[in-house]
Amino acid sequence: MVGFIDPGGSLDDYFLTVTRVVPRQLKIYVIGAMHWRLNEQAGIDFAKIRNDIAKLHMENHFNLLGCELNNYGRSEVLQMRREYHIKMIGVNTAAKVSSEVVIRKGKTMDKHQMIRWLNSWRQLGRIVFPKNRTPELQKIINQVENYVVKRQPMSGRYIYEADEGNKQSGERHDDGVASLLGNLFIVKEKIFRISGYDFRASGAKEYRTDIESSEKVVLPHRAMGGVMAEKYYQGL
Question: Whole-model pTM above 0.85?
Fold first, then answer.
């Protein structure tokens, strides 16, 4: 079982995506999602969320647990190790990764290529979403299907957007799909050992046959210090 956290930021919420991997079949099942809504006044209570994730880790025994290394993520990885002795895999993200050295290290995710990899493997039937989808899983799927890459004409900077957010203000969030992409990146690099972005399953070298887990993940629902954590589980 693999979990990956997008710790959000000034606009996005805190999002955890859980997958179950069957290496022998080269299949990835998206089985759960966990969502903490950003409170515009109070922000996000990171300490309470870390405590909750530590409990989930004890209950579900994640084989791998990762986190995006944005401004908030670096602190989260450090604090989880200090407070709960949980080692997390930090993943950097970039608009474009062209260096072969960086690609081989498997620590930096090319967002543009990773969304193509997701769509390709989904078409091959190797990334599977449940038929009965919870609101959080549906949110991820909506973001995947409406994920766009834009390049600013003046700066040349890439912007990644999905169709979630405040349409009146023009803000579009990608917290759910970012969490899923990070999860799949870890699976690709650490379990299937695919270096780069081979869009075919033939590029996989399954070496982690010990990554076999229960089909169920326990994601309880509870209020956390004024920040409502919406946590859902959908069995296969």
Answer: no
Quote the domain boundaries for residue 52: 2-233
Which parts of the chain register pLDDT below 70? 9-12, 38-43, 147-173, 198-236
For residue 226, give the CATH number of its domain: 3.30.420.240
Question: Per residue in 146-191, pLDDT tens?
Answer: 765 555 566 555 555 555 444 443 345 678 888 999 999 999 999 9
Assess contact for 67 and 91: CB atoms under 8 A: yes
Sequence-separated (6 or more) residues with CB below 8 Å from residue 3: 16, 17, 18, 19, 56, 57, 60, 62, 64, 65, 66, 183
Domain count, the chain: 1
Torsion, Cα 201 109 186 20, to 10 degrees, reads -70
